[in-house]
Specification:
Oligomer: single chain
Helix content: 25-40%
Radius of gyration: 28 Å
Structural class: alpha+beta
Number of strands: 17
Strand order of the largest sheet: 1-11-12-13-15-10-9-4
Shape: elongated
Distance between the termini: 49 Å
Length: 448
């Protein structure tokens, strides 16, 4: 969340910067300032009346000792009136506190000055790496390849769970496992991340901390756990959640804690399945593996010193790109504009891989610096040096990278004229011995 002291002291700057994310958010600044003024005035009056009530109560005791009963009775009436007013003010103050929390939880992060303003059509291309493959034959798209090579059983997934839940089968399952292991080995062995395996179901306080709640609960799958303790944060909602990304549990690893220096940056990577409702997805964009409700991903998270976090964003994005480079895929980097960024992000790079049969660029990684926005929501702090006052770190995340669009680009790019797919050399050691290309299977589990 945003720093409420900054909002209080710099309302005009806050309005201007939040207006870049939408006019409604700028209006919330005005409401925050008015609410804050009411809260502080109420606090002043409360303190004054409580002091008067305490003094009057002491006076009653003294009057009673002196036998001045009429005066004591009048003082008691005064105290009763004071307590009625104090109760009214307590209610007003509690309402202001609650509204302040609601406003802070529903305001997005402010953006970095380098972020272009506008909607998705204002995205800025930073650069392209590699040449999109050109074919001297008619290439198959990923759906046709998946069917020919029996990599994905879309029909079985629909029978099991509905549309958007594909079953990776045979060589497809082997390929996906190989890609996950390749990415984890790369990020742990070369990039210096510590691998973790987080829970895939989380308490609502976790998506509240990363910013999915309270505004975007409808985009996540809810879980009701019989007999589980009720969530203790009413603002978070009544349910547990299937994670939409490993960012949610990993970023919450250090919630309500203070990290002691020198520890930053802390670099964590995690594999997880991910679930997203993707409400409204339909038509050609939902065909095959392009947009699904359940997928798998390797996630990168850094807890960084604010002095180095912007350099670390560049480094993290390059680490995601290295996955694509090693797999021989063409990709490009873009900066998302203010109207197309995640709620908690101050700056986001999208890395898009080229899918040659479809002749489209598909996003496979978003790398974001959330500055201290998520850390404030989670009350996660660090101490720069012994004896220093704790401060909020910057939290960064990046897909490193997401499946299954990676599978789309890989099989379309490396297909041959006879309908097989040659696997990049970096994957050979992760596949069964001798399996260096994907071919139509002979026998095995019936594919219907």
């Amino acid at each position: 969340m945003l720093d409420k002291k900054w909002l209080r002291d710099n309302p005009e700057e806050a309005r201007q910067r939040l207006a870049q994310r939408g006019a409604a958010f700028a209006a919330q600044v005005d409401e925050f300032v008015a609410n804050d003024e009411t809260r502080r005035k109420t606090q002043v009056e409360l303190d004054q009346l409580k002091n008067e009530s305490n003094a009057a109560s002491k006076q009653i005791g003294a009057l009673m000792k002196e036998g001045k009963t009429p005066e004591a009775d009048r003082a008691k009436d005064d105290v009763r009136k004071l307590k009625l007013r104090i109760a009214e003010l307590d209610e007003i103050f509690s309402g202001c506190d609650e509204r302040e929390r609601e406003l802070l939880l529903t305001m997005p992060n402010v953006t970095h000055p380098s972020v272009p303003e506008g909607g998705e059509d204002q995205a800025k291309l930073i650069g392209t790496t590699g040449e999109p493959r050109r074919f001297d034959f008619a290439p198959l798209d990923h759906v046709a390849l998946c069917q020919r090579l029996e990599l994905v059983n879309f029909e079985a997934g629909t029978r099991l769970a509905g549309g958007g839940f594909p079953v990776m089968a045979g060589q497809g399952a082997l390929l996906q496992r190989a890609l996950i292991n390749f990415m984890l080995d790369l990020h742990v062995g070369e990039h210096g991340y510590t691998e973790m395996r987080p829970p895939f179901i989380v308490h609502p306080r976790c998506p509240l901390g990363t910013g999915q709640l309270p505004k975007f609960g409808s985009e996540m799958y809810h879980v009701y756990i019989e007999g589980a303790p009720a969530p203790d944060d009413a603002a978070a909602g009544p349910h547990y959640y299937l994670i939409p990304t490993a960012e949610v549990p990993v970023c919450n690893l250090y919630r309500d804690t203070i990290l002691e220096a020198p520890v930053l940056p802390v670099k964590v990577c995690a594999y997880s399945p991910c679930w997203r409702v993707e409400a409204g997805s339909y038509g050609k964009e939902a065909r095959g593996l392009t947009r699904v409700h359940q997928f798998e991903k390797v996630e990168l998270v850094r807890f960084a010193d604010p002095a180095t976090s912007w350099d670390e964003l560049e480094e993290m994005t390059s680490e995601a790109e290295r996955v694509l480079e090693r797999l021989g895929l063409a990709f490009r980097r873009i900066v998302l504009p203010t109207g197309d960024m995640a709620f908690g992000s101050a700056k986001t790079y999208d890395v898009e891989v080229y899918c040659p049969a479809e002749q489209k660029w598909r996003e496979v990684s978003s790398a974001s610096n959330t500055t201290d926005y998520q850390a404030r929501r989670m009350n996660m702090r660090y101490r720069p040096a012994k004896g220093d006052k704790p401060v909020f770190p910057h939290i960064l995340n990046a897909s490193g990278v997401a499946l299954p669009r990676l599978v789309i680009a890989l099989i379309e790019t490396h297909q041959t004229a006879d309908g097989t797919v040659r696997l990049p050399e970096v994957l050979h050691k992760y596949m069964p011995e001798g399996l260096t290309e994907l071919k139509p299977p002979v026998g095995g589990v019936p594919f219907v």
